[in-house]
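Hi! If you just cloned this repository, the fastest way to understand the data is to look at a raw example. We've pasted two of them here, unedited. The first protein comes first, obviously.
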Amino acid sequence: MAMITIVLPLEEIVEGMELDADVMDGTGRMLLRAGVIVTEKHLRIFHMCGIQELRIRREGADEAPELSAEMLAARQEADDLMRPRFRRTDLTHPAVAALFGECVERGVKRSRWSGASPHA
């Protein structure tokens, strides 16, 4: 099997996963380099800094499953719907970024589980 990169929300990251990309905070400060194995301490820091998702390296099939394309489309649609609602906010602020990410995730879950549009 080949190594693939997946993007997971912070809530789905567990200790022992390997980062595929550097992790930067909202100000551009590097928190952790690619290739590092995630620990519980890292997860706490990511949460405090408002990190919403991480690129993780793992073994997998040579191609991502079709669901990934659907999930990506649902995430993009939810992001596009939420962004105007946050237009007067500072999305680099950790609290605002966390709230925005939660709104996007809820939109994705709503569309994925109900088959409805994220803004329904």
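Ok, and the second one:
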Amino acid sequence: MLARPTGGGPALDCAATMKSVRRLFLLASVTVSCVSCDQVTKSLAGSELAGRPAVSLLGDTIRLSYAENPGGFLSLGAELAEPLRSWLFVGFTVATVAALLAIAIARPSSDRLHLAGLALVISGGAGNLIDRVTLGAVRDFLNVGIGPVRTGVFNVADLAIATGVVVLFAASRRARGP
């Protein structure tokens, strides 16, 4: 049986470095994958759905229709004057994404589930930030519901944020125990 070093030593430094590399790889791969998927689907929605009637799928459970949202969640703030709206939404998103990225990198004690949740929220914020900076509005195209009960129109970035929040909640519940 091999003895484990008790001090800092090179073996523990190497293990800590490998753990950091794996964490950064997880963070980067989730973020790049989600932002890429978000931007590709928004581009397809713009080219295939803009100016056309909504496409109904699965008995109208899912509707695909293109919309540009200059506001926030459910178009909140869309009526604000343009310079204020841009500064508010871009500034808030940059600050939030930067803070979450700092937390993800600085907290090596976080487990993979917590890190994946952070990466999803970061990805969603970054995907919508790209739209705000390049287009002045966020491109939305998904609507889900049954009969008159429907969601607002959303996109893959919004889905990543919502999923990330659920994952973070699950990670925090798991960390606290039963």
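That's it. A detail worth noticing about the second one: The chain has one domain: 41-176.
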